[in-house]
């Protein structure tokens, strides 16, 4: 029996199980930034580490702001390493164009995922558990995704996936919201929906939750055991049917 649902955000709700590196790479190709995928991936990692270490992202930044900052760090790294030989003005123009492309990509995905979440919110308490930068509340408002009764954000709580504790915080929040004890709302009655096998499915399973793995294109080919997820789907459109089971 499912009494409540925990969602991951990035890669699950906003890209329908396509890793963000792949979405950005598509943007690079569309805009015509002449670098190899391997060089791009190196700069992607540089940007992710920079965003985790420095407070470039502020609580009031929406998702377009975030993408613009992220792309700026990536393209500066490509230019500074001599991979992309370009003037700073052209770099900035194309960098911003990639951010705009990816933002529009997300808006299209949300046309599918938003109504699914809205319908589920009518039937179940929803909590969001996400590795994010401290601005997830602004993004949810920007994208009209204010269906979550509680948000557990890594930058706020100081715990990051794949640590199972971040999902335990989501479980604890649901018990408070529903006014139920651990016996009345066991972890096995909570469904966790995520796109990452190692960061969502494995830790959520380890604390006893049911899981739905929205399987798509990940960062790398990792070894997986497909018997671990309770359910595997390949498009978030399939989620309502899984929840009915």
Question: What this model shows, in words?
Answer:
By secondary structure, the protein is of the alpha/beta class. Helices cover 50% and strands 11% of the residues. The chain contains nine helices and six strands. A six-stranded parallel sheet has the order 3-2-1-4-5-6. Strand 4, helix 8 and strand 5 form a beta-alpha-beta unit. Helix 2 crosses helix 3, helix 3 runs antiparallel to helix 4 and helix 7 packs across helix 8.
Strand line-up in the sheet with most strands: 3-2-1-4-5-6
Distance between the termini: 9 Å
SS-based structural class? alpha/beta
Nearest-angstrom radius of gyration? 18 Å
Based on DSSP secondary structure assignment, what is the total number of beta strands? 6
Low-confidence parts: none
How much of the sequence lies in strands comes to 5-15%
Brief write-up:
The protein has helices spanning 20-31, 37-53, 63-80, 88-121, 136-142, 154-157, 164-178, 197-206, 239-244, and strands at 4-7, 126-130, 150-153, 190-194, 210-214, 231-233. The protein is an alpha/beta fold and 245 residues long.
Write the layout of secondary structure elements.
Layout: E1 4-7, H1 20-31, H2 37-53, H3 63-80, H4 88-121, E2 126-130, H5 136-142, E3 150-153, H6 154-157, H7 164-178, E4 190-194, H8 197-206, E5 210-214, E6 231-233, H9 239-244
Parallel strand pairs: 1-2, 1-4, 2-3, 4-5, 5-6
């Amino acid at each position: 029996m499912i009494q409540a649902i925990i969602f991951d955000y990035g890669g699950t709700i906003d890209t329908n199980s396509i890793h963000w590196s792949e979405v950005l790479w598509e943007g690079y190709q569309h805009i015509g930034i002449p670098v190899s995928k391997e060089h791009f991936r190196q700069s992607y990692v540089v940007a992710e580490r920079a965003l985790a270490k420095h407070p470039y992202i502020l609580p009031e930044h929406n998702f377009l702001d975030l993408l613009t900052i992220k792309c700026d760090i990536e393209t500066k790294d490509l230019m500074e390493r001599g991979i992309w030989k370009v003037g700073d003005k052209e770099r900035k123009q194309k960098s911003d164009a990639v951010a705009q492309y990816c933002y529009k990509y997300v808006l299209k995905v949300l046309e599918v995922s938003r109504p699914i979440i809205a319908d589920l919110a009518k039937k179940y308490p929803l909590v969001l558990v996400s590795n994010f930068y401290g601005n997830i509340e602004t993004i949810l408002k920007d994208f009209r995704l204010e269906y979550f009764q509680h948000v557990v954000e890594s930058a706020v709580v100081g715990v990051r996936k794949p640590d199972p504790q971040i999902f335990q915080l989501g479980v604890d929040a649901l018990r408070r919201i529903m006014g139920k004890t651990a016996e009345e709302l066991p972890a096995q009655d909570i469904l966790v929906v995520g796109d990452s096998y190692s960061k969502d499915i494995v830790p959520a399973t380890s604390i006893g939750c049911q899981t739905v793995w929205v399987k798509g294109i990940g960062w790398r080919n990792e070894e997986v055991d497909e018997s671990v997820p309770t359910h595997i789907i390949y498009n978030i459109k399939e989620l309502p049917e899984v929840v009915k089971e």
